[in-house]
Amino acid sequence: MRSHDVDYKIIGTDIQVLEVELDPNETVVAEAGAMVYMSESIAFETKMGDGSEPDQGFMGKLFSAGTRLITGESLFMTHFTHRGGYGKAHVAFSAPYPGTIIPIDLGELPQGLIVQKDGFLAAARGTKINLHFNQKLGAGFFGGEGFILQRLTGDGKAFIHAGGTIIEKRLNNELLRVDTGCVVAFEPGIDFSIARAGGLKSMIFGGEGLLLATLRGTGRVWLQSMPIKKLIQALAPGGGNGQKESGGMLGNLVGGILDE
């Protein structure tokens, strides 16, 4: 089915809110629990699946919903529809942690968009949300996103969420090396794999982790400056910030020994 043609605006800077404007009988689909506020004429219903194939039957919907459980998402999605007879209605959504909301026009991406498993926020009804399996074992085990990603396809608007600041890069048969947790989304023409971060000393004491993601090919890539795992580590007692001084001293000490 063709996606509903929804309008939107993004409110705020650090902790953003997505406000979607609906005409009568238009629907937007969102992750359960993402809604902030909605107009009186908005009716919402929790359903299995994204609603992109209304005639798929119960078993098809069950399978579609079950695949979401594999990605760690809720079994259900919430459908918000403008049930008033006239005028505009609004419904707003926020992401679960600070960052940036990215609007994507899937009509410009005939092969869809591959997104980290917790990156999807909302989309116009008609957007299909499928699993995307990372077939490379290294990227699956160590890529920060596991074997399973999400693939969004359709011809309407979709909205994904990134932690911190978003950076969009356009690769032209190039290679880009990235922290494994900083990859938010990429076009299917991009090859995603994992490479060693450097020599033994750099891997252990460099602070960049043992491995880096490598993105190679032609297409767009979206990166985030603050993955949720880094945010948790920074805020946790005894986390990354608390260990910086002692870790730096230890790294310098052992690094000096290795240089001997």
CATH class: Alpha Beta
Number of domain modules = 1
| Order of SSEs | EEEEEHEEEEEEHEEEEEHEHH
Distance between the termini: 66 Å
CATH superfamily: Mitochondrial biogenesis AIM24
Q: How would you characterize the largest beta sheet?
A: 7 strands, antiparallel
Helix content: 10-25%
**Overall pLDDT level:** 78
Output the radius of gyration.
21 Å
Provide the CATH architecture. 4-Layer Sandwich
Structural class: alpha+beta
Low-confidence stretches: 137-147, 241-260
Indicate the proportion of strand residues.
35-45%
Q: From the 3D structure, determine the CATH topology.
A: Double-stranded beta-helix
Number of helices: 5
The total count of strands amounts to 17
Report the oligomer.
single chain
Which of globular, elongated, flat, extended, rod-shaped describes the shape? Answer: globular
InterPro entries: AIM24, AIM24_sf, Trp_RNA-bd_attenuator-like_dom
Describe this structure in words.
Strands 9, 11, 12, 14, 15, 16 and 17 form a seven-stranded antiparallel β-sheet that branches. The chain has a six-stranded antiparallel β-sheet with strand order 5-6-3-10-13-8. By secondary structure, the protein is α+β, with helices and mostly antiparallel strands. It contains five helices and 17 strands. The N and C termini lie far apart (66 Å). Strand 1 (7-11) and strand 2 form a beta hairpin. It is globular and about 60 Å long. It has a single domain (7-252), classed as Double-stranded beta-helix. It is 19% helix and 43% strand. It holds the Pfam family AIM24. InterPro entries: AIM24 (IPR002838), AIM24_sf (IPR036983), Trp_RNA-bd_attenuator-like_dom (IPR016031).
